[in-house]
Design a protein that fits this description.
mainly beta; Collagenase (Catalytic Domain); Immunoglobulin-like; five-stranded mixed beta sheet; 4 helices; disordered N terminus
Length: about 375
């Protein structure tokens, strides 16, 4: 039985001298999505966003840990307080205070983390707040008077996001005080290696079925991504990856009486369904992969991947139905498919094949070819 800690806030204070701590917890997923979009530039000309990207890359180049940068601005304090569960988004941003609490005089940055405890402890979310009242710049090497190096401070805070503790016994970027070290040292690198040396194990008890799109299916327009997942423990999250890259978390909890009959002893089997709408025309036409990654409350994971093909009109979205007309003929192509010739969409002509899809219980477009008007 796992227990989610709603009020566990771990504060990482990086100061000139400070007495603070950060417990070394692994992140719940890796690569770790992190939202950063910083505006403005330092006095030396480097943009804050470019410096943040360099800080992320520093960990990626020196360790096996990977960040997945999402260049979208998100307020790290938007749900804190009072929602101590966070919003499942790891963020970095400047702020004038630490989510409503004034920064101490010597505090350069602070990291808030929300953790979950089972037989181990994992970080669900981390938010880095950079003190906007500090005179920041971006530079390498020894510290300069009256100005702080933003990049090395962020590298330190990202170390806490990864799960490293303060280290004052040997030279380290994770020292609790700022000095001339401006990148991870051998001790920091070894810490990440040890922390992630035993990856989350796969649970053969998790069953996941991706019903749409099916393997080798052809998709077009707007349709659903759907399926179901159950495990020996409750399902914690279901993530989607498109072409190997983190895409989104899929809503779950759909009623599935059929799954309940098959897995009546599995927790939550009656609401094992997951589903979301997807505009396939936003992807490039051609072959893609979709991975559904399921994690239970003991951080055991299973995933399934389908390869599919996207067919699309030149227009990503046809907003005016008057721009669509059936000017051509009809041709039966097989027992369960037919072709419409000369389908006009926004002034362009196409030959389109429709085929019966058992999963969706309807005819769907499987081929779209440009044709002569």
């Amino acid at each position: 039985m796992c227990r989610k800690i709603a009020t566990l806030l771990l504060l990482s204070l990086f100061c000139h001298t400070v007495y603070a701590y950060e417990l070394a917890f692994r992140t719940i997923q890796e690569p770790l999505p992190i939202y950063i979009n910083l505006s403005g530039s330092s006095g030396s000309g480097t943009t804050w966003h470019a410096a943040a990207v360099e800080a992320l890359n520093t960990w990626g180049e020196n360790t096996e840990f990977e960040f997945n940068l999402i260049s979208v601005k998100v307020d790290p304090c938007s749900v804190f307080p009072p929602n101590f569960f966070g919003d499942d988004r790891n963020t970095v941003a400047f702020a004038d205070d630490a989510c409503g609490v004034p920064f101490d005089e010597d505090t350069l940055a602070i990291t808030f983390s929300v953790a979950i405890i089972t037989d181990d402890i994992y970080t669900l979310e981390s938010d880095v707040v950079i003190n906007n009242n500090v005179d920041w710049d971006v530079y390498d090497g020894p510290l300069r008077p009256f100005t702080m190096d933003f990049k090395r401070v962020l590298i330190h805070e990202l170390g806490h996001v990864i799960g490293l503790n303060h280290e004052d016994d040997v030279p380290a970027i994770m020292a609790s005080f700022i000095d001339s070290i401006d990148e991870p040292t051998a001790d920091d690198i070894k810490g990440v290696e040890v922390l992630y040396s035993n990856p989350a194990f796969t649970d053969d008890g998790i069953e996941v079925v991706l019903e749409e799109p099916g393997e080798s299916a052809t998709v077009s327009g707007i349709s659903n991504i759907r399926g179901w997942a159950v495990g020996n423990a409750d399902i914690l999250r279901i993530d989607l990856l498109l072409d190997g890259e983190t895409f989104t978390r899929v809503p779950r909890g759909g009623t599935r009486e059929d799954v309940k009959k098959l897995y009546k002893d599995r927790p939550g089997s009656e609401s094992a369904g997951f589903s979301m709408a997807m505009a396939w025309s936003l992807l490039e036409p051609g072959e893609h992969t979709l991975t559904v990654r399921v994690m239970d409350w003991f951080f055991r994971t299973t995933e399934v991947t389908h390869t599919f093909n996207v067919e699309a009109f030149d227009a990503a979205f046809v907003s005016d139905s008057n721009q669509v007309s059936l000017d051509g003929g009809y041709e039966k192509t097989s027992q369960n498919s037919f072709k419409i010739k000369g389908l006009s969409v926004e002034g362009k002509s196409y030959d389109v094949i429709f085929k019966w899809n058992t999963g969706s219980q309807k005819f769907e477009m499987t081929e779209i070819d440009a044709s002569e008007p």
